[in-house]
Amino acid sequence: GGGAGGAGGLHKRHPSGEPTDQTENVRMRFTYRVCQSIMYVDPAELSIAFDHCAVNTSYVRDFTIWNKSEVPLTCMLNCALAPSESTALEFAQYDTGAAARELCIKEFSNVRVKVVFKPQRLGELHYVAYLTNLNNPYNQLVLSVDAMVGSANQQTSTVALSTSTVEFGDCCAGSGQTYRRQVSFKNLGEQPVEIDLHTGVPSDVSFHVAVTRSAQSASATAAAAMTLAPQGSSGGGSSGKHSGGSSDKSGGQTTVGTGASSSSSS
């Protein structure tokens, strides 16, 4: 349902600024729509980019669909693809891997959707997917997917870092205090990856896996296979290795803690 209307009154003032007894009616229009069912996606997640991709290589992104109402809703996800690109873009439920075409979302809950992109041709590509709330035909969202596909030797790593620089700030040498920071690695591809961590000052910097209680089981499994105890490598540095193995899901994220000791100056 919906409605419109509104009214108000203004008291006139004398040019000198003193109020008068005269009033003037002013009408202001406002509109609203009452919806029983509301589907929501963060606007920042409605635009997905796949940069520097290679043909026949899979890449993964994800977004979350929220049910903001107190009744269950059914979301229909539709993306029209040319027959030659029928497998280029796929949508699946992140937790189960089931196809994400018709999604049932419980009240005040959400569903995470994985977008798998496997380009079939070179160039700048653009796709559009529509998300429709079957309980509310006015509640439709548009998901935009853009990709840049080049030759195989132009592709970049499928591992994304939360930061490219770890800043410890001012540290006091000789105090024995340890300073800690965290860096997250996210696998944007569909294949497990192996991560080697090295530092030229093994006596001062070390690595360890940071698993929080809120971490998903997939990330915790991947982290359990990760050994980051500082060791002397052939290059004289400390290293840690993460071999994803079969337990490392695509799109998984692992957080690594970095510790700096102030036992010596650097």
Write a concise synopsis of the structure shown:
The chain is mainly β and 266 residues long. The protein has one helix and 20 strands.
How do the helices and strands line up, and which of them pair or pack?
Blueprint lengths: L1 E4 L2 E6 L5 E8 L3 E4 L5 E2 L6 E8 L4 E9 L5 E7 L9 E5 L8 E4 L4 E8 L5 E11 L6 E11 L8 E3 L16 E10 L6 E6 L5 E5 L7 H8 L1 E2 L10 E6 L9 E9 L5
Parallel strand pairs: 6-13
Antiparallel strand pairs: 1-4, 2-3, 5-7, 7-11, 8-10, 8-12, 9-11, 12-13, 14-15, 15-20, 16-19, 17-20, 18-19
Your description of this structure?
The chain has 266 residues and is mostly beta strands. Helix content is 3%, strand content 48%. It contains one helix and 20 strands. The chain has one helix spanning 217-224; strands at residues 2-5, 8-13, 19-26, 30-33, 39-40, 47-54, 59-67, 73-79, 89-93, 102-105, 110-117, 123-133, 140-150, 159-161, 178-187, 194-199, 205-209, 226-227, 238-243, 253-261. The strands form six sheets. It has a five-stranded mixed β-sheet with strand order 6-13-12-8-10, with no helix packed on it. A hairpin with a 5-residue loop joins β2 (8-13) and β3 (19-26). The longest helix is centred in the C-terminal third of the chain and has 8 residues, at 217-224. The protein is extended, with a radius of gyration of 27 Å. The relative contact order is 0.15. Mean pLDDT is 74; it is low at 212-249.
